[in-house]
Design a protein that fits this description.
alpha/beta; 13% strand; 7-stranded parallel sheet; 5-stranded mixed sheet; Rossmann fold; single chain
């Protein structure tokens, strides 16, 4: 009798598998069998999943047109609807998104194991079972009322009333590597009795060698597996290899990157693509949401809903998939400006309609403002709740109006397919609001993409040993630790555990899980000629042991698998050759006006390279947008409020003469004026934020006035005066927050307001001062400055900090000059330090100081290359310690 799959899968035979991955592997196995037999052409049988085969069989023989068979997507949606309408109040709770899947799985498992619904009533005291019974009953009622049919019901109907194959002869069905459930076995028997020819096929045992290996960690497993696979393909390019990586979906990028590095070690690393298709993700494959053009479309639609906050607007403005390419830079510049605008605290719709956003966009990009105005009008005219068909229609118009795709109007096929699938949910879900409609679309787009044509050889990635099909030349299974394998029991959450044990449902008990895990490993080993079973020594820095189920196989080392010279000391494209350093001299500055003023020299003092990047290249990290005012905005508000409060340049005695009521009114006017200048028309929408910041500012100003009352007599001589000084040929501009004239000698105190917490005058006295603002004023103001003071406007601990010559002029203790310095000497020293820093800047000094290395890290690191610099420095230090050249 024929036993090979090619002999069994003859013309007219339908090959039935468990799932889509199995079907694809069987198709490739058949093709390789035919090629190995020397055939250049053959009749390919239909290879279907059991679900697709049963659906086709029902449509062909039993579908009388009275009931509509639901698609899997419609089934999922209907279960969600039933649970939402049950009044259980579960929406929004942790794990809510899994409940409908549990209910659907429980219903399917009940039918697959021939469990009558009445049998569950014996467990109605179990709250989970009782909830499931209620949902199942409601689900059935909806199906009956609407004339719909669950796909599982089609299998039940076929098992009860199996059709005759008809007059054209005996229909042939081949169960390929498929373990039948009770209902499937019942269906198979009914089909045989009705005249169908049914047969079973399992891959023949072909194992020649199996070994195990233990490696440092999961990343090392992937690296060695990649090197092993690359070596095999280098020897025999026509091989078909399987690599199993638990959690493949989350680790896909890491795994594919390691494989590409092993397969193509000499390729360019930055954005290069080889064009080879030697790596195939059978599981953990990409979704439509991974397509950046589709992600941009979803982001644009989200912009017009309740979740459309500034981060959504930011992504839309920066997206290359909207508008004309020549507007891309202008859109990005607009986005950077909007980050500091108060409208960033609002949703897009609120900000555009009443927060001043529309005016700011129109001032920068009038055409873009017109597009958004039309889009806002379109969405505003649409009903708040609508069918999914109606939402799809308005979304198409919206994206067209926003010029999605730019000049390339080609819409991705996955997008159109998802919209078509979404429309099919209209009769199931009825009318939805925008957020729920988008959630349904995102759910569809988040499904794994359908695999296209799959090559017959190469590396095939899977997430579970259970899914390794026939036809592989070798397989590597990773992650086989004692904590992961055998797998834990996985009972269906909503079915009583007693019932699951009674019917011997898979994975229902620890004993069943142990046996199933043992069968899975042995099944994989039997069907693949060479198998490597690997385990890491540690997972997340915790020591683990190999699974007891793999200890019977011989242990080998990496050298046994790859050879002693196979391990590369450097990974990710770095070879063992010595790195070379070339000096790239920065050209001297050409512009005479120092961009950034004194702040640039302060940065030059602690990190010259960052000063060069931020001032000469004008490259700065983007301002972080977070709820509420950030530190910079609070600083602006505080400066404006103090300026308003002291606008009349009062003397101290005038401040002291204010009555408590007058003081409160003046403070309130100053604070409100400051904040209204920042909030503008957004004040009404952001009333809560306005009141919070107003209370904070009131406290700051009230405490400032209390501090002022403890000083010796003074007069406010100036507020926010601008000065310009020529230093080493550079024009350096600065703005003095405040200058006080002190009694009795008329000397001056320069006061700088600070709202942050790091304000240490001792930093001014270092060889390379950290904050040069006040030292700069002291050094270059012609009048007699005898005090440089920070007024820390902190509502928790406001205080004066700095240097002043006469004790008592400010509350607290003055800083101390170095013992060998007088005040004139210190001013001269500051002048020389400023001149030195100006020369460094003009000459293009771009150093990084090890003590200040954090200044070169963070968002600016790609430009400073600080991590590479640090590695070279450590390497040089190591060589020096070893007296190596």
């Amino acid at each position: 009798m024929p036993t090979s799959l090619t002999d069994l899968a003859v013309k007219g035979t339908t090959v039935v598998t468990a799932g889509g991955i199995d079907a694809r592997q069987i198709q490739n196995y058949l093709a390789r069998q035919h090629l190995e037999a020397g055939r250049s052409a053959w009749l390919t049988p239909a290879v279907l999943t059991f679900r697709d085969w049963a659906t086709a069989l029902w449509h062909r023989y039993l579908d009388d047109g009275r009931r509509q068979l639901l698609t899997p997507g419609q089934v999922d949606a209907l279960w969600r609807r039933v649970i939402d309408e049950s009044g259980a109040g579960l929406r929004g709770l942790p794990g809510y998104s899994h409940i409908s899947a549990w209910a659907r799985e429980a219903s399917q498992r009940r039918r697959d194991w021939n469990v009558d619904i009445d049998d569950l009533y014996a467990f109605r005291d179990d709250p989970d079972c009782r909830a499931f019974l209620r949902w199942e009953r409601a689900y059935r009622e909806v199906l009956d009322d609407a004339g719909w049919m669950d796909p599982g019901d089609a299998v039940d109907a076929l098992a009860v009333r199996a059709p005759s194959p008809g007059r054209n002869g005996t229909a042939s069905v081949l169960w390929a590597d498929l373990t039948l459930t009770p209902i499937q076995s019942q269906l198979a028997e009914r089909l045989r009795m009705a005249g169908f020819k049914c047969s079973d096929w399992a891959p023949p045992s072909c194992n020649q060698r199996s070994r195990r290996i233990q490696l440092e960690d999961a990343s090392e497993e992937v690296r060695v597996a990649a090197a092993w696979a690359a070596a095999r393909l280098a020897r025999q390019p026509g091989q078909r290899l399987a690599i199993v990586v638990p959690g493949l979906e989350a680790r896909r990028g890491e795994v594919v990157g390691a494989l590409e590095e092993a397969l193509y070690p000499d390729r360019l690393r930055l954005g290069a693509r080889t064009g080879h298709r030697q790596i195939v993700c059978l599981q953990g494959q990409a979704t439509a949401m991974d397509n950046p053009m589709i992600g941009a479309a979803m982001n644009a639609l989200e912009l017009f809903g309740s979740a459309g906050d500034f981060p959504v607007l930011s992504r839309w403005l920066r997206s290359p998939f909207f508008g004309a390419p020549d507007n891309a830079d202008a859109r990005c510049m607009l986005e950077t400006q909007l980050r500091s605008h108060i409208s960033s605290q609002m949703t897009f719709l609120d900000a555009f309609r009443s927060g001043g956003l529309a005016a700011r966009i129109r001032a920068a990009l009038p055409a873009l403002a017109d597009e958004l105005e039309a889009a806002v009008s379109l969405m505003g005219a649409h009903p708040r709740r609508a069918t999914l068909t109606a939402w799809v229609t308005v979304w198409r118009r919206l994206l067209d109006g926003l010029a999605w795709g730019g000049q390339d109007s080609t819409v991705p096929d996955d997008w159109e397919s998802a919209l078509n699938d979404l429309v099919l949910l209209t009769p199931i879900l009825g009318r939805l609001d925008l957020s729920d409609a988008l959630a349904e679309l995102e759910r569809i787009l988040g499904r794994p993409q359908r695999l296209g044509a799959v090559p017959l050889h190469g590396i095939f990635l899977l997430a579970s040993p259970e899914n390794v099909g026939p036809g592989y030349d070798a397989a590597w299974v990773s992650g086989l630790t004692d904590t992961q394998w055998p797998q834990a029991s996985q009972p269906i959450p909503l079915l009583p555990s007693t019932l699951q044990r009674r019917h011997d449902m898979p994975w229902a008990t620890p004993a069943a899980a142990l046996e199933q895990s043992r069968i899975t490993i042995q099944r994989l080993v039997d069907r693949v000629p060479e198998v490597i079973l690997s385990s890491p020594e540690s997972v997340h820095e915790h020591s683990v042991q190999p699974s007891p189920l793999i200890l019977s196989w011989p242990l080998v080392t990496e050298a046994d698998l790859l050879g002693s010279s196979a391990r590369r000391s450097q990974r990710f494209g770095l070879d063992e050759s010595r790195l070379e350093t070339s000096t790239d001299t920065v050209p001297p500055v050409e512009a005479r006006k120092l961009r950034g003023g004194i702040g640039t020299l302060s940065m030059q003092s602690i990190c010259p390279l960052r000063a060069f990047i931020e001032s000469r290249l004008t490259a700065k990290p983007l301002e972080t947008v977070r709820p509420g005012f950030n530190a910079r905005q609070r600083g602006i508000a505080a400066h404006a409020a103090v300026r308003r409060l002291y606008s009349d340049l009062p003397e101290q005695k005038e401040l002291l003469s204010w009555s408590p009521g007058d003081r409160t009114r003046r403070i309130d006017r100053s604070c409100q004026s400051s904040l209204r200048g920042m909030f503008g028309v957004a004040e009404d929408r952001l009333g809560a934020l306005f009141e919070l910041e107003l209370a904070r500012l009131r406290s700051v100003l009230a405490q400032l006035l209390e501090l002022e009352s403890t000083r010796t007599p003074f007069r406010v001589a100036g507020m926010e005066q601008t000065i310009k000084v020529d230093v080493e040929g550079l024009e350096i501009a600065g703005r003095l927050d405040r200058v006080d004239e002190l009694d009795p000698d008329g000397s001056l105190a320069v006061i700088d307001y600070k709202t942050g917490r790091r304000n240490n005058p001792s930093d001014w006295l270092k060889e390379r001062p950290r904050d040069l603002q006040l030292p700069f004023y002291a050094a270059f103001l012609e009048a007699g400055v005898e005090a440089v003071v920070i007024a820390a406007l902190n509502p928790v601990s406001p205080q004066y900090k700095g240097l002043w010559l006469a004790d008592g002029r400010f509350p607290g203790r003055t800083g101390r000059l170095p013992a060998e310095f007088t005040w004139p000497m210190q001013r001269d020293r500051w002048r020389m330090q400023v001149e030195t820093l100006a020369r460094e800047y003009a000459d293009g000094d771009g150093r990084i100081f090890r003590k200040e290395i954090k200044q070169a890290e963070g968002g600016i690191a790609p430009l400073t290359r600080v991590h590479e610099w640090n590695a070279l420095t450590r390497k040089a230090d190591l060589r020096a310690s070893r007296n190596e050249p």
